[in-house]
Amino acid sequence: MSFGAPLFLLALLAVPPGLWLYARHLRARRGQAARFANPALMPAVAPVRPGWRSHAPIAVYGIALVALLVGLARPQTTVAVPVEQATIMLATDVSGSMLAKDVQPDRLTAARNAAADMIEQLPKGVRTGVVAFNHQARVIQSPTADHRLAEERILKLQPSGGTATGDAITAAINAIRAATPPGGKQPPSAILLLSDGESTRGRDELDAAREAARLKIPIYTVALGTDEGTIEVERPGGNNGTYTQKVPPDRDAMRQIARMTKGEAFTTADAKQLEAIYDKLGSQVSMKDEEREVTAAFAGGALLLLVVGGGMSLRWFGRLP
Questions:
Q1: Is 156 helix (H, G, I), strand (E, B) or coil?
Q2: 269, 285, 301: which is the final residue of a domain?
Q3: What is the pLDDT of residues 151-190, one digit of tens each?
């Protein structure tokens, strides 16, 4: 919590001396009562003693005073608010290696489900687009505020072919730029890039990442799978059966892409963890921290405490302190 007028907090230094004066006043009153009445006869003279109730209204008033002083300092708290007109491009690898089952039930199914869940939870004003890439990259959904459309496109992805990561980044960049009105300012944008293998086709991925960095578009990367992930590949000729091929993720390239664009890199081989990563990224790129003043809350709380303290005093003693 921060304060717009912190000098008012210096008034809180008067609270401890005030408590000391109150305690001294109570001791003085007890001393005066002892001089005019025999302590042994006090239970007969005043059989019902208020005890803690005599201090409760004052304690509530004291808390109200503290709340008022804090309110004068204009307290501010940080809250997460949606980024208006933000654009998120989901670039998802749909190469043949996404059939590997080292991520249950398989890499592509886990990726589809996690991305669809994230889209469903995005704030309404956030525009979402989808790029699917194997040996070529295709924008299958331009940035749209209709999250249902983007979710449907994601859930229809099917795996085949090689991997063109650089082309996928370029396609996502172009979709973001196309969604910006001519002469208008590019809205806050980000690319969520999920891939499970080394780029084998198209533009160099680091060259594409440099373009994203120049345009201030961060790329958040997820390297999906394990080094032990495998798929069955047909032997050349088509009639010679299949062989098992390892398909490890290219973690180094994904880390470089994220670092160059000031994004963040993740590695996972667990479907549940992938969902958690997508949830985090969805909040990270579609929400921003903003300072909000909460003076009214402190003032309202202080007023309520004053009413409560006064009510306690009137109920128990028939008077205000």
A1: coil
A2: 269
A3: 999 999 999 899 999 999 999 999 999 988 777 788 889 9
